[in-house]
Specification:
The structure holds two protein chains of two kinds. By secondary structure, chain A is α+β, with helices and mostly antiparallel strands. Chain A folds into two domains: 30 residues; 157 residues, Jelly Rolls, CATH 2.60.120.600. Helix content of chain A is 19%, strand content 28%. Chain A has a four-stranded antiparallel β-sheet, with no helix packed on it. In chain A, strand 1 and strand 2 form a beta hairpin. Chain A is globular. Chain B is globular and about 75 Å long. Chain B is 36% helix and 30% strand. Chain B folds into two domains: 30 residues; 153 residues, Immunoglobulin-like, CATH 2.60.40. Chain B contains seven helices and nine strands. Classes of the chains: A alpha+beta, B alpha+beta. Chains A and B meet through helix 1, helix 2, strand 5 and strand 9 of A and helix 1, helix 2, strand 4, strand 5 and strand 8 of B.
Amino acid sequence: MRLLLGSLFALAVAAIVGLGSTYLALSRGAGFGPLTIGSWTAWPKSGTVDVDPYVQASIARIGRLPTALGDGLAFSATSDDRGRPLDGRCDAVLSGVTPAARFWTLTLYNRDGELLANSINRFGFTSQEIVRHADGSFEIAVAPHARAGNWLPTAGIERYVLILRLYDTPVGVATKAGREVPMPSVTVRSCP
Amino acid sequence: MIRWLLLALGGVVLGGIVHLATIIILPHTATQDAYSRLARSARVDAVIPLPAPTPQAAPMPFMDPAFALAVCRYDLSRGPLKLSVPVSLAYTSVSFYTRYDVAYYAINDRAAGRRVIELELMTTDQHNQMPEDEDVTAADRLIVESPTLTGLIAIRALAPEPGLMPMARSTLAAARCVPEDASKASQ
């Protein structure tokens, strides 16, 4: 009886620890070798055959196709530069420049990777659409209500994800965070 | 007391094994992964344009709305595959994925350096079986080896502005992926 109780206890602990940690790892998006610059994170190896099992499992769970490294690299941001989660009811500003790339696109999704309906059918920007300053830098207002200049509507959703995809870029597995890879800053300006 | 602590410790060790096993098995059992989703609608060895993602519906999550996307689901068990993709004005890329959504190769229009990206896709065995002279005479033939028999080719064309989307779509409409036997027979 004691043996049975004991093994049941051990198995229960195993199930809770094993499945719980798997769930946590997948929902947090864990993986080896992330490239983090400011509030932006990319997994350069996720687009290669050297993809680690954690990233591969989360890709399968979400059901997306990863951007292949020969095609480009996708950076995602879920919080601003001070670590506060991005809230669609607040006004946020993306400003600065992007690393070298032939094209880039910036897209706003909800946490499930769906686009958000809005009055101007604007789901993101490409590097050619953006209005820039004379020095090539730009500002994008990510806000629930219309703003002058580059406005990316959040539709007032509570949590959103920004994905900045660089296409045909030298940024890759060997890249270290530094001056060669300047990512735009993400700042929350005002919150109701 | 010590007995229960030891049992808990054993449980944690076993839990670690469960964790690793589930992480490794998950991609092989997932039914909502990109390949499985597309396998329901896309037939084998044909370029199928996917609808653009909208807030209401999307073929898969986290699609880039600035791109027109077409996929070719392949099965190399009957022989190699020929792929040709005309290059659009802005940016065109071809990415190769295994059955389990691992990106193993990608090429873009500039790397291809021509107006049409032409590739042959085959398994390592099929590549080894190729007559040697054929390999030599066609030095500019681009051969891609697939690690799995089945998989997915994603063809992407960028529309730098929304108004250019029809042009990007028409580029993809001219892309072809056909089994090599069929392309020889038609010549």
